[in-house]
Amino acid sequence: MKKSFIISASILSLLALSACSGNKENTSTSKTTNSKVETKKEDKSSNSAIKESTISSSTLSSEDKAKQEEQGKIDNFNTLSDNLKYLMIGTTVDERIKSGLEGLTLYYTPEGEFTYIYATSNMGVGHPFYKLKVDNNSVIPVDGVVRESSNTYADAPVDTTPVSKAKLYDEYIANKSLYDGAATRVEKSQNTESASESFDRQKSYVNNSKYKDMTMEEALNKGDADAVARIKSLDGTWKPSDGGANMIIKLSQDGNNLSASIEGQMVGSWMINASSAVNDGQNVILTNAGQGITDVFFNTKFIFKDDNTMEMFDVENFNYNSNKWVDDTTFYSRVN
């Protein structure tokens, strides 16, 4: 009996162990199955996130890619050197710049929200002076003025449509070598007169008859014989009141230019605008000899006290940027 009990106990023990082992396997299998289910859920969730991200990226690309590219070009434009930036700004108003500024120098002046551009050969006339507004993203041409002759100014029309800096950057990249070379001929203006004052002054001359060219012949045709006679009376020899050497003034054959010499040395050469003798009074003759962005319109003024006595005024220090007349208190009396 005792032996039989021991065997039965052993059998029960083995059955218990077997059951226990079975439970562990079932638990393990259950955990594995659950793990696989969770993994599948995570994979599904991850795939869904990727799809959502792809859709979002695709939407961003179609709607904002162009804006992002444009902003990138604007940022690139703003990092260009000053010479290149103002050169490209100038292309919005002056076609000569697109040819590489051959024989020209581009002067620029930033003043507040405006920028002033002037490309010139430093000789002659016909070089427009432009006013533009530059903001964070674009360049907006505002107005222009051009000196057509020694005494005549005119409007220089501009297209006031804003031009994106991105477009200017594209133009620069497309012709990089041309503009890099032209940038060596760009300078910041050093004129003492502010660009805004100069621009406004020159605009004031447009359509002002006082500053229109009038030859001696035209003045005569208009019946201004007295004015012409006064201009012609400058021709001759004049003795200064300070005891210096005589000054000889010669009137050109056409009567539109004067030259002055002292002891054989040329001391002055002027262009005569006959209308000045009319508009400023027959006893006043204004002449002009300057050129450039900020010329004083007239640089010498002759005032007759009587038929045989006159006084000369020059702009301060012969500086074309000055609007101040200087009287050296020297009078000239006619010798012949």
From TrEMBL:
Origin superkingdom: Bacteria
Record has Signal as a keyword: yes
Comp. bias (Basic and acidic residues): 62-73
Protein's UniProt keywords contain Signal: yes
Keywords: Signal
PROSITE patterns assigned to the protein according to its UniProt record, in alphabetical order: PROKAR_LIPOPROTEIN
Compositional bias ranges of the Low complexity kind: 22-36
Signal peptide (residue range): 1-21
Name this protein carries in UniProt: Lipoprotein
